[in-house]
């Protein structure tokens, strides 16, 4: 130490608060990582619990497939906004001409080999990249709303739908308990009981789950959900047609204009 250096020599007695502060940083970071990975559970539903339950009827799960929406087909296309959207938002996606899009249609089931005539939910995912570096990603389902509002509700729904080993069907008592705890699921099931089953991805509509906050040039805010509507007419399938349809029937007639 130089003669005019005013710093005090390091001693444990004097510097213990600083040492505790330094040790606290990695401890806090490790705890946060452990919490977000589900190692510290505290009764939270983890993504692993959901994944394991999701595919509990397929064992071992085939490698190389997504745990949901495993069956799908990719596409490329062009996004063209109309001038009305540009009045709601100053985002480049609504002013740039002809933006390249990549996307994927999929069957919203856990089993990647499911017959698509048996899955209520089909999906469309899109990635739109504008020339100013913005990325718009949207995952949309062919249903107007999701059947539950929270991850806990989703997990409870999976559990309630486990087939009873005696009957091979979900236990009606457990289903009733689930419906009374998550009443939004009743609304979904009412919709699902009567809504038509489109015979192709090209006749279906797809809805995003999240809303986006659009901000116009003048600062006005509008909340908007992405909805993809087909130009081709929607052809409804009967239950008989669905049962008899080949596994990949929805993939045969994708003709977006
Ligand atoms: C708790 C609720 C949900 C769970 C647990 C869940 C789970 C998953 C999983 C595991 C994947 C596969 C991801 C991968 O391996 O790449 C996936 C994909 C997907 N999800 Fe969800 N999801 C949920 C809600 C939703 C909702 C509300 C929507 C849309 C409204 C949605 C639309 C999609 C789409 C379109 C894909 C396929 C993406 C692609 O083709 O690249 N999901 N989901």
UniProtKB/TrEMBL annotation:
It holds the Pfam family Catalase. SUPFAM superfamilies: Heme-dependent catalase-like. The keyword Flavoprotein does not apply. InterPro entries: Catalase, Catalase_core, Catalase_sf. GO terms for biological process: hydrogen peroxide catabolic process; response to hydrogen peroxide. Keywords: Heme, Iron, Membrane, Metal-binding, Oxidoreductase, Peroxidase, Transmembrane, Transmembrane helix. Its EC number is 1.11.1.6. This is catalase. It comes from Chryseobacterium fistulae. The gene is srpA_1.
